[in-house]
Amino acid sequence: xxxAAFAWERPDSLPALLARLxxxxxxxxxxxxxxxxxxxxxxxxxxxxxxxxxxxxxxxRTARVECDTLVLGACVTHADIEDGRVPDxxxxxxxxVAAAIAYRPVRNRGTVGGSLVHADPAADWVSALTALGAEVxxxxxxxxxxxxxxxFVTGALAVALGADEILVAVRVPALPAGAAWxxxxxxxxxxxxxxxxxxxxxxxxxxxxxxxxxxxxGPPVLLADARxxxxxxxxxxxxxxxDPRAADLALRxxxxxxxxxxxxxxxxxxxxxxxxAAPDPRxxxxxxxx
Length: 290
Fold this sequence. Notes:
Layout lengths: L6 E3 L4 H10 L5 E3 L5 H6 L7 E4 L9 E4 L2 E5 L4 H5 L10 H7 L4 H6 L2 H7 L5 H8 L3 E6 L2 E6 H4 E3 L2 E2 L6 E8 L6 E8 L6 E10 L4 E7 L6 E3 L14 H4 L2 H10 L5 H19 L10 E2 L1
Parallel strand pairs: 1-3, 2-3, 11-15
Antiparallel strand pairs: 4-5, 5-10, 6-7, 6-10, 8-9, 11-12, 12-13, 13-14
Helix pairs in contact: 10-11
């Protein structure tokens, strides 16, 4: 099947893009890498009258460091991160997540901003950036605002974005010295979307951390205070203190009724905790296949 007819425009600046977006007809779509929108167009799941190509906006393709925060333009690709063409203040965590997304042709074109805006519950950046405590920067005709990723992703394929707004950047805080990071996803086959995701960002020295259970039916289940998963304390022995029952309870509280499904997600989260404790950071580089 081929897409329905549509108009295509490529603004060359952010003000021009926002102005065109504000005056565009209903049903306008933005495109960058096209890894999600392209198939939807071909299947006629969406039939926009106009598509605005945002890759002509230089600001959206850049990355910079502001103090202890990495600012990634929305059009930075997965491959840009994987290949080290942008800075990484997370000790390689971003690069390892990017390297395990789908296949290289997808990573060459797919963008971090596009992944977040599409908000597929099984997408890597939705869970990973939530665990890292990242924020998104949103621009509209009336100005800019920022939101934590967990407030930006409001549901499956749903985000807190106004009709005349676009996501312009992702702000990722640096991992402090001594922090531990673990990210594991369970896939039916390497390269496919995950059936379960576990991610942890732990600071044993400060006794705090975040944990995320992703690839659920809605937005990731976030434990902004991960201490209950470790008996109330996050110390150097966090891997030994991980309590699967606490993770199971969090999933039940989030509405996951199926015990088998909860078991899979709890197991993957436990493996993310183990990966965070592993001396070799490559322990959480690749997804698991069933």
